[in-house]
């Protein structure tokens, strides 16, 4: 049974070198949420983490300090320590299969080719957690996917991605208050 406490985990890669890359949109959403909730995030265990409330509802914000493809251990640790169920978790992640700035929300499901999601599914032994995917596009030559996801957005894409991050922040706050179904109904594109 889901609790009233929510955990929002944005996926990305730690370090300045990755700060503005396509792969780090999950981290950017967490930063937007922390600013909105006036939360200070601090390194604790294998995550940068902060707990607070949104309109009376407890919510944690986390950015794993592991690299993207090894996010599962940090997420599992947070879930266990806070006695949360998969339904209490929302993972925010980039998606090369969606056009830049598009948001897709799912209640559960497979990794869809995303190694970070796959690692979380493996560590939780469950795919029953909600996820919010933000499209980062797929304009890369065959064999150049890694270079692409670790690149910065083009100038013409920045406004779209900035808007998507704000929309993802607002969708996440809806998840905290009203749950995944309401979030999907209001924000899926």
Write a structural description:
This protein has 189 residues and is of the alpha/beta class. It has a single domain (6-187), classed as Rossmann fold (3-Layer(aba) Sandwich), CATH 3.40.50. It contains 6 helices and 7 strands; from the N terminus they run E-H-E-E-E-H-E-E-H-E-H-H-H. It has a 7-stranded mixed β-sheet, sandwiched between helices. Strand 2 and strand 3 (47-54) form a beta hairpin.
**CATH H-level superfamily:** Peptidyl-tRNA hydrolase
CATH topology group? Rossmann fold
Kindly report how far apart the N and C termini lie.
28 Å
Mean pLDDT: 91
How many beta strands in the DSSP annotation? Answer: 7
Number of distinct helices: 6
The main pleated sheet reads as: 7 strands, mixed
CATH architecture term: 3-Layer(aba) Sandwich
Please write the CATH class name. Answer: Alpha Beta
Q: Kindly name the structural category.
A: alpha/beta
Give the SSE string: EHEEEHEEHEHHH
Regions with little confidence, pLDDT below 50 for 5+ residues = none
Strand order of the largest sheet: 2-3-4-1-5-7-6
Shape by Cα distribution: globular
**Percent range for β-strand residues:** 15-25%
Specify Rg, calculated over alpha carbons.
Answer: 15 Å
Count of separate structural domains: 1
Percent of residues in helices comes to: 25-40%
């Amino acid at each position: 049974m889901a609790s009233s406490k929510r955990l929002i985990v944005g996926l990305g890669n730690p370090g300045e070198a990755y700060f503005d890359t396509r792969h780090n949109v999950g981290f950017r959403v967490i930063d937007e949420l922390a600013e909105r909730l006036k939360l200070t995030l601090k390194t604790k265990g294998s995550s940068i983490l902060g707990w607070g409330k949104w309109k009376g509802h407890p919510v944690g914000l986390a950015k794993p300090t592991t690299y993207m493809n090894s996010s599962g251990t940090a997420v599992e640790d947070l879930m266990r320590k806070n006695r949360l169920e998969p339904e209490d978790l929302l993972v925010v992640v980039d998606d090369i299969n969606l056009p830049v700035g598009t948001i897709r929300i799912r209640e559960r499901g497979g990794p869809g080719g995303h190694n970070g999601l796959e690692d979380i599914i493996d560590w939780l032994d469950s795919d029953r957690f909600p996820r919010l995917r933000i499209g980062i596009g797929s304009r890369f030559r065959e064999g150049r996917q890694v270079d692409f996801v670790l690149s910065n957005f083009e100038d013409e894409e920045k406004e779209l991605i900035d808007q998507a991050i704000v929309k993802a922040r607002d969708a996440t706050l809806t998840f905290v208050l009203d749950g995944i179904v309401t979030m999907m109904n209001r924000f899926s594109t």
